[in-house]
Amino acid sequence: MAAQLEPLPDAELISAAQAGDADAFTALYDRYVGRVYRLISYRLGRSADAEDLTQQTFVNAWQAIGRYQPGTAPFVAWLLRIAHNASISQLRATHFSVQLNESIDPADDGDVADDLLSQERRQNVLRALKKLEGEQAQAVWMRYMEDLSYPEIAGLLGKSVENVRVITHRGLRKLRRYLEA
Question: Is 53 helix (H, G, I), strand (E, B) or coil?
Fold first, then answer.
């Protein structure tokens, strides 16, 4: 039985990718594609568009990997900034409004009633999130859906950590009011 290797830290993979190692960048892709996809999917609301834009985000990141400076922001924050900018550009270019994905995956096992209830709760949260103002929605999404730390969010939004905490707290208060209404 082969021993499982420990994954390389981001810093090593980034350094190798900056030296032109496509395999190192592939490892970074594998590590972060889910987070990038979730952010874009939330912003665009359509899975086909989100898949395309996720791929474009990683193409853009590969082309710009030489400009990434470790220590300025976590790599995932840098990737999510590229994804955020790409999704804003996509929304501006196509002028479509974000639609909520209301489909239920037929491959899911379990009780249909539970699936419907879970889907309804998810839709309520997404609707409430869409009512939040820009930075509040972004901060709440990144903190609770993407599980980013406050310093990572601060790097992404170009704000202080304390400012991000305040924005997130205010966003959560508004979100709670929207959900209670």
Answer: helix
